[in-house]
Design a protein that fits this description.
CATH class of the largest domain: Alpha Beta
CATH topology of the largest domain: Beta-lactamase
Number of helices: 10
Helix content: 25-40%
Strand content: 15-25%
Strand order of the largest sheet: 2-1-14-13-12-11
Shape: elongated
Distance between the termini: 30 Å
Number of strands: 14
Structural class: alpha+beta
């Protein structure tokens, strides 16, 4: 009787061992000599491993760690804020790193400010950008006009980008919700835009502040506020009380979900910089955020092997090991609904010239939900998904 009752257990063990042997062969074949693969079950038991101790460049999968930092230090249910003051005859705007101060959000700002500015005639709008340290240069960000290379700043509208149409030398806005401003016209002509295009406004912090001031002024005029043409830089007097503080309609969790879904590097580094300021005080700086991320890693021994030099994954100097990332996924599991579902797996991809990666969660027949980390060479765009699908079907 005992032998007969043990038979199903023995059979299950044999099937499980056979499946793990099969997946081991699959990940070794698809991973290649320099690939990294790790699959663990909910208890942390290793189900498949390939080059487990090898350090790799996480690329945009790093945004998972940036979201963990936001959850820890900003709170995913909280919201980014922007302060508005009236100083002399200017509306003075002090941003605090809100990455989603887009045109639709500025409509809400204008509606909130209009009754508070009733009877006040403003000479213009000025921006105090001191919440971020001057001259922040994010490693990996280059001088192209692509949106992912946009300048990070404390007060930024529309991701520090313009979306325009240029036809016959005439510049117009490509968005009904976004008035064309003088700076947008200048940037489009300067960059030689043809047709419809979204580009960043460049690397000048002064242009970033000017664009924010111009667009906010235009939105206020649209709701009947008298605003002159003066735009420029300003400084909030010490002890000044805001006329109004705008809270973004999106929670920080929703901002991070958009960051993960669209893999937006600009948003990721706005969040990363905001984390540093939240922990160590303004002004935000890259050094502060790097120090906060290092402290987070040190406080979770399972994360040993993670090195963050910025928050988006665009830098090749970010580092991780598969074991460290698997632990990050364990910490991230309460937030996994923020991830995009691709190939039936809640996951985040990463793409740089020399690496193609994917991390996330997959359902299996025998082991339930598993966590996976895959980092392959530059030719691994499809193979990373082949590995994920093998995990789903073979385990």
């Amino acid at each position: 009787m005992m032998l007969r009752s043990a038979a199903p257990l023995l059979l299950a063990l044999l099937v499980s061992n056979t499946a793990q042997a099969a997946i081991a062969d699959t990940v070794a074949r698809l991973g290649g000599a320099d690939g990294v693969v790790l699959v663990v079950d909910s208890a942390g038991q290793v189900l498949a491993s390939h080059n487990e101790g090898k350090v790799f460049t996480p690329a945009s999968t790093l945004k998972v760690m940036t979201t963990l930092l936001a959850a820890e230090h900003l709170g995913l249910d909280n919201r980014f804020e922007t302060d508005f003051f009236v100083v002399d005859d200017l509306l003075l705007v002090r941003g605090k790193g809100d990455p989603y101060l887009v045109s639709e959000e500025l409509d809400a700002v204008a509606a909130e400010l209009a009754p508070k500015l009733k009877g006040i005639e403003l000479a213009g709008v000025a921006v105090d950008d001191s919440w971020f340290e001057a001259g922040i240069v994010v490693p990996g960000v280059t001088s192209t006009t692509e949106p992912y290379d946009a300048l990070n700043s404390a007060t930024a509208v529309n991701f520090n980008t313009i979306h325009v149409v240029v036809k016959g030398g005439v510049v117009s806005s490509a968005e009904e919700q976004t008035p064309l401003t003088p700076l947008a016209t200048e940037v489009a002509k300067r960059q030689g835009v043809q047709g419809t295009n979204r580009i960043n406004i460049g690397k000048s912090p002064q242009d970033s502040r000017r664009y924010a001031a111009e667009l906010i002024a235009a939105k206020l005029r649209g709701v009947g506020v008298a605003v002159g043409s003066k735009v420029g830089d300003g400084a909030v007097p010490e002890g000044a009380v805001p006329l109004h503080t705008h809270q973004n309609s999106r929670t920080i969790g929703e901002v991070c979900a958009a960051m993960l879904y669209y893999s937006n590097n600009y948003i990721a580094n706005q969040v990363f910089l905001a984390v540093g300021a939240a922990v160590q005080g303004a002004p935000a700086s890259l050094d502060k955020s790097v120090a906060v991320s290092a402290a987070f890693v040190e406080s979770h021994p399972g994360l040993k092997g993670f090195v963050m030099v910025e928050g988006s994954g665009i830098s090749y100097n970010n580092q991780a090991t598969s074991a460290a990332f698997a632990h990050a996924l364990e910490l991230f599991e309460p937030h996994k609904a923020l991830l995009r579902v691709q190939h039936d797996a809640a996951s985040k991809t990463g793409t740089l010239t020399v690496t193609k990666s994917v991390v996330g969660y997959a359902d299996t027949k025998e082991h339930g939900m598993v966590r996976f980390v895959v980092s392959l060479n530059g030719a691994g765009s499809q193979r990373r998904w082949d590995i994920v699908q093998a995990v789903q079907s073979e385990l």
